[in-house]
Design goal:
Blueprint lengths: L9 H12 L6 E6 L3 H15 L4 E2 L7 E6 L4 H15 L1 H4 L4 E6 H5 L3 H7 L5 E3 L7 H11 L3 E3 L21 E5 L1 E2 L10 H5 L3 E2 L2 H13 L4 E5 L16 H9 L5 E5 L8 H9 L6 E3 L7 H6 L6 H14 L4 E8 L6 H14 L3 E6 L17 H24 L5 E9 L6 E5 L5 E5 L8 E9 L3 E6 L2
Helix pairs in contact: 1-7, 14-15
Bound molecules: S-adenosyl-L-homocysteine, iron/sulfur cluster and FE3-S4 cluster.
The site of S-adenosyl-L-homocysteine has 17 residues, from strand 13.
Length: about 475
Amino acid sequence: MTSVDSVDMNKQNEFARLISMMSDRPKTFCVITYGCQMNAHDGEKIAGILSSMDITEAVREDADLVIVNTCCVRENAERKALGNVKYLAHRHKDNPRFLLGVCGCMVQENKDAGEAKRMFPEADFLIGTHNLHALPEVLYNAIITGGATVSVSADDRAPIAEGVPAIRENRHKAFVNIMYGCDNFCSYCIVPYVRGRERSREPGAILREIEGLLETGCKEITLLGQNVNSYGKNLSQEISFAKLLHKIDALSVPRVRFMTSHPKDLSDELIEAMSSLQSLCKHIHLPVQSGSDRVLSLMNRRYTREDYLNKLRRLRAAASNICVTTDLIVGFPTETEQDFEDTLSLVEEADFAAAYTFIYSPRKGTKAAAMDGQIPAEVSSRRIERLIAVQEAHTRAILGAQIGSVQTVLVDEVSRRSASHVSGKTEAGISVSFAGSAELIGRFVNVQITSAGHNTLRGSIAF
Ligand code: SAH
Ligand code: SF4
Ligand code: F3S
């Protein structure tokens, strides 16, 4: 296959320069992001682009320009974003300069510009997921014309835009995209329709970005992709995800994480890397979705329950104290009580440290949405409650087992509950809070674990 092209950014840089010189440009912005880490990182890129035009970040109520970065993975994510857009539309009345932009997956879902406009009539501009780098041009047109401008590309093999600036939430932690899109078409999932075909970034571009981050004091890199295990397949020089991890390890990054891994593509080479690479955190998020082979097949996941459990056993044999987390869906069409019991028994067997549990939400245009046997809401609600209770017992036991141990914590922030405490994450990705002050943010601290809460640990600095 040929290498993926990258977009020429000169034109956009020129629009950014023009806007920065306009006296009637918005002076302040706020980005509201829903959805996954990929979208969160898109939000950081939006902030980076706007800051390059001399527009400064503000809280939602004070911003001249608000961009709602949407998600459509489940109905409730859509509802929240729509609610916020409706609420913000009133700001046009109070502030004639106010601009409202909508971008992200809900915009891309309506590939046709007219349809996207009908969904968000209140927006001054709309941008699909393949065109985010064109924000300067779209914003320029919105300021000049005062009418709604739309940039949605139906090209799902869209080239990758390199060199888009990003303003990261933290200096010590950063998301780095390694690939875009997804080719898996799990039957319930909208992501392949709104993020396009799988496209990997060149290893050189990834390594350069990481080197730049290390120079500014970054301690933890999270590599992002919808299915990182299939990284490298569309590059002119194929390279596996495990090989990329080796190259990143050679840069001496203190901590490397990645998400998300598809179980079907979890290779022996990656399992080996998990055990041997110093920089890799002993944590893997490995969504299983269901414990029933019948449901897994209908979901088009392309592995069986036993395949999954086998891979877990091999991972744990190679990296003994690896922490495994997962995603689970209940109420997939035709799911029987027996299928659901199979999910419960898998959760018992797999012993996950944590699980994100979801009620199946039909997404228009996906295969599962057209299936017979949709499950009534009250059945799904009952099932998810039982599932959460089973998982909670495992989380409690795994957290409880850490009491008395000393964990290395990378400190993220002052605790939300108490100004005299800080919190951060262990290598396994578990949150720990302990007495300490803001100057510890961005540092590694050894913490003795003294107690365990619902999802988090508490401790004190180990001297
Ligand atoms: N690429 C990642 C994450 C995709 S979305 C992966 O493959 O794991 C994150 C999670 O949302 C999925 O793992 C799945 O559990 C859930 N999800 C996706 N579509 C859904 C739907 N239609 N209804 C309910 N949950 C869904
Ligand atoms: Fe969706 Fe499946 Fe792709 Fe994940 S792997 S984004 S669940 S289609
Ligand atoms: Fe949502 Fe789009 Fe991510 S649908 S989960 S924001 S890829």
